[in-house]
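Appendix C: a fully annotated inverse folding record. The material below is reproduced so that readers can follow the format used throughout the book. The structure is listed first as tokens, followed by the designed sequence.
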């Protein structure tokens, strides 16, 4: 009791009222909320770690596999921060301890946003087959001439051990998986002559920032390379345009292939859909 009186008298002597002293003590406790600071640093650090891993791989500072490893571990860190935040919040309620709530909420928000972003990619990857070669024509895919198809393109095609695909070679398994997942991606007809369609295809490729490798009007062919964001993956694209039976229209096929990785997480399919939609206006499948 005497100690409390002495503290009160000391505060009064210093010109500080009891409410002000209590508020100062709370502020001091909040500034020492080491777990709150850890939550904030972990949430922000997960985002920075993931971005640094991806961007560094994209600029060639390390390999893309190392970049993926960094993103994976940063994702685990964000999950750990979410768990820590929940446990800490429960402990605070039991101990009636407020801590630095603003700092905790900021760290939790960072972790949740990053974990949610990565989780969306995980679900997307699980929703599509682990293939990286997308074509509108599965029987006769457009071939690369100026660019080179990756040498391992037909390696590790899923389904070798599946009962319904047993005995099929890699290309046959690829066609089966492709048809099941991307049945909407097919040859399109455009009611414009080949030369006009090729010119428009060239403009669209340039507008998307693709590196044009070859334009061969006599063959009705354009080859280019698209670069993805962050990891800066290279995907090779070929557009093949042939005249219709009467020569007034065009039959357009497109192929997009990732240079690395087994699964493209649907990126090549999205590229083909978007490009052909812009090229044809109203897409008419053949």
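Designed amino acids, in order:
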């Amino acid at each position: 009791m005497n100690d409390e009186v002495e503290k009160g008298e000391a505060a009064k002597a210093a010109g500080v009222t009891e409410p002000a002293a209590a508020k100062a003590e709370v502020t001091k406790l909040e500034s020492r909320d080491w777990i709150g600071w850890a939550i904030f640093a972990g949430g922000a650090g997960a985002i920075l770690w993931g971005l640094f891993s991806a961007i560094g791989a994209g600029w060639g500072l390390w390999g893309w596999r190392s970049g993926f490893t960094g993103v994976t571990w940063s994702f685990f860190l964000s999950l750990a921060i979410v768990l820590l935040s929940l446990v800490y919040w429960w402990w605070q309620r039991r101990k009636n301890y407020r801590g630095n709530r603003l700092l905790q909420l900021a760290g939790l928000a960072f972790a949740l946003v990053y974990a949610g972003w990565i989780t969306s990619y995980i679900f997307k990857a699980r929703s599509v087959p682990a293939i990286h070669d997308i074509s509108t024509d599965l029987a006769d895919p457009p071939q690369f001439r100026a660019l080179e198809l990756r040498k391992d393109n037909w390696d590790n095609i899923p389904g070798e051990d599946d009962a319904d695909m047993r005995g099929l070679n890699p290309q046959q398994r690829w066609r089966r998986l492709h048809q099941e997942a991307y049945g909407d991606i097919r040859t399109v007809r455009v009611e414009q002559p080949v030369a006009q369609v090729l010119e428009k295809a060239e403009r669209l490729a340039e507008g998307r920032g693709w590196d044009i490798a070859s334009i061969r009007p006599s063959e009705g062919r354009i080859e280019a390379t698209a670069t993805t964001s962050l990891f800066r993956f290279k995907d090779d694209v070929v557009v093949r345009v042939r005249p219709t039976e009467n020569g007034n229209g065009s039959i357009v096929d497109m192929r997009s292939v990732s240079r690395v990785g087994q699964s493209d997480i649907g990126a090549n399919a999205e590229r083909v859909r978007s490009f052909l939609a812009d090229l044809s206006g109203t897409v008419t499948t053949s």
